[in-house]
Each structure stands twice: as C-alpha cells, then as structure tokens.
Amino acid sequence: MTSGDLEYAMFTRAEMERRLTKARELMGGRGIDALLITGEENFQYFAGTNSSIAPHYSLTRPSIFVLPLDRDPIILTQRGDNIELGCYVTDVREYFGILRFPHADVLEALNDAGLKNNRVGAELGLEQRMGMPVADYLDLVAALPQAEFVDAADIVIKLKIVKSAEELVYMRKAADVTGRARQRLYDEEIVPGITEREVVRALRTLMLEEGADRTSFVHMQHGIPGSQNLFPYDRPLRRGTVIGMDTGAFVGMYTVDYPRFAVLGIATNEQRRVHEAAKAVSNKMADALRPGVTCAEIHRVAVKAIEDAGVTVDREEKLGAGGRFGHGQGMLVTEPPSISSEDHTVLEPGVVLSTEPGVRSGDVAFLWEDTHVITEDGHEQLTLETDELREIPF
C-alpha cells in the first residue's frame, strides 16, 4: 500500500487500511492464507475503486483482488491505468488477452500470497457471485491440489455489513439526491398522458441532475402487472392511481433504496388510512432498532404492528422464512442482513438496513420503506424525504 492519501481516491488511506486489517483478523481466525476476490462490488470494496469501464455490462475482462494474510495485496486487471490515481495498492499486475481467463497470472498471485496453511477463501456462499467463469475457478482449484478452497462469504459479509463514517457520507448523499429528484418528479413531470416509461426515464434524469453518478432500478408500485418490469411499458398512467416510485441514486459506490407515494388526483380516505398505517408500522420497527437486537426480533415487531394498525400483511410469505420486512443496503440495493423470521443477525453500530413493511386493506396496499443506520444508542434515519401522500393534479 502507498503512504499518504491520493488526490482522487474516494476513501482515505486509513479507511482502506482499516478494511484490510479487519479482513486479515477474520482470515487469521479461520486459518485462511489469502482471499480470492472477483465479484464486482467486492473488488470495489477491497480496492476502493473500480478498474472496469462497464461493471456488470461486460464480462470480458474480469479484475481480481488477492488479499494475502501477511503480505501486500495484489490486483490483476487489464486496465491498471484506470485505478492508479484512486487505489492505494501498489502491486497491480496487468494481463492481456480476451479469449481466455488469466489462469497463470492468478495462479502466480496465489502462490506469491504465501499459502502457509494451504487455505484460500473465495466468494462461494450467501449472496456472493464470483466474477470469473466457474470452469476457470475449478481449474484453479485443480492446479493447487495441496490447497483447500473454502467459503469466505462470512468474512465478506462481516466486513461490508458495518458501514464506516466515510461510507455513510456517500449513503447520506444518495438518500438526499433520491428524495430531491423524486419530489421534483411529482412537482414538475407527471401530467395527464404520461406513460410509465416516460415517468421512469424522467426520474432517472432528475437523479442525475441532482447529483447522482448513476441510478439503480426504478420501480412503480401501483399494483398493475408489469409495472415493475426492468423495461417499463409505454402504458399511460390513469387518474386515481396510486404510484410509489421505488428507486435509489448511486453516489460513488453507494446507494439507498426506498419509495414515496403519490395519488394521481385526490386520495380517498381509505388510501390515506392505509398509507398512515404503513408509516406507523415502519416507525414502530425503527423505534426498536438498536445494538444488540436481532433481525428476527424486528420482524416480530413488524408482525404485531401490522395487526395493531388494523391492516393485514400485503404478501403472506413475508410472515415466514421466505419473506422479509427490510434488508441491508450499501453497494447493492439489497444486502445482508434481512429482517426476516429466520435471520438472527445481531445489529451493531454501523449496520445500515431498511424497515420495509407491506400492508393491505382490501384493494389498497402500500409497501413503505425507510433506511436507517444503527448508532451506539439507537438508530439514525437516512431517508429524510417528506413522508406525505402527495396528490398530483391529473
């Protein structure tokens, strides 16, 4: 690692050293000599930047981060010049060629890592995706018959689940950008005749205007089949419809995910009642957020709050193992942990997650969401956008 901060780095050198130090502590506890990191967001987390010009839109030139237990980290990439102004790693090795995975280069890096215990940790488990072909991963395993490749998902999750002060700066900005853009959408863009596709495009544009570097998904929660398709339809909106624009801006590597609602016309009394009930449930969940509480306990709070509010769960599977009332956020729209009946993750300061109850009364339903960070004595809500049910002349 280099000394001193870099002019264009997204994070301080101290922050990046903190991540690597914590990773090595966890690796040492499991006798792991090196981490083999290839997933796009995981690479960004450990490198503090991104060497790909098209993450997730091209699979041709994967980047690899090798973190040895007691030696300097190694990066393998085809575009070392892309990261040199924002990455503190000095052992950056370029490879060339697009018709085959750089097997020999990665094998050399793993050997250089020093495999004293012959254990390599890889992204093999919960919510992990490797950024390399499966066949090439198996070839690496075969080429190191003396080494044991083990699942290091728990290490990656343990690191990323707790956000640092520097990470939270980006998440607060993402929440602010998202809120300002969505309220502008409701104030300026939605008029009779507008289509679902035009609304989605307008909100993406507004987020960029407000300071986003890119946008995540944009879903319209209005109970019509196809409304949450990745490719929105050229279907005009109708008067009386409740729309919940669910989205999040990316600022740097980080995003948030949450909706706010509007009625195209005048809201009915029942719409207002159910909207208030959804907020009340979310607020009761938020009141229970603090260090030492488990996600399963917050799930139980949500179930009781829904019953107390005089509404029902919007989707029954959320009551059991297959459903959840919130989730972690950060570099991805959804990350561990999950507010579900089976997730017993103990909350600690720095964990960012949403309270996301879905409630229903007859044909009226709302899926509310706010994003919070656990603090030393409770929580801080990051999503400070107005929670009113907007009425848009239509």
Describe the structure.
This protein is α+β, with helices and mostly antiparallel strands. Helix content is 32%, strand content 21%. The chain has helices at residues 13-29, 40-47, 103-113, 134-143, 153-161, 165-189, 196-210, 269-287, 295-308; strands spanning 34-37, 64-68, 74-77, 91-94, 119-122, 148-151, 214-220, 242-251, 254-255, 258-264, 312-313, 327-328, 335-338, 352-355, 358-361, 364-367, 370-375, 378-381, 390-392. It has a six-stranded mixed beta sheet, with helices on both faces. Strands 7, 8, 9, 10 and 19 form a five-stranded mixed beta sheet that branches. α6 crosses α7 (196-210) and α8 (269-287) packs antiparallel against α9. The relative contact order is 0.11. The mean pLDDT is 95.
Quick overview of this protein structure:
The chain is of the alpha+beta class.
How helix-rich are the residues, as a percent range? 25-40%
Radius of gyration: 23 Å
Report the uncertain regions.
none
What is the strand tally? 19
Strand content: 15-25%
Biggest sheet record: 6 strands, mixed
| Anisotropy-based shape | globular
Termini separation: 58 Å
Strand neighbour order, sheet with most strands:
4-3-2-1-5-6
One letter per element, helices H and strands E, the order comes to HEHEEEHEHEHHHEEEEHHEEEEEEEEE
Mean pLDDT: 95
Count of alpha and pi helical runs: 9
Backbone structural class: alpha+beta
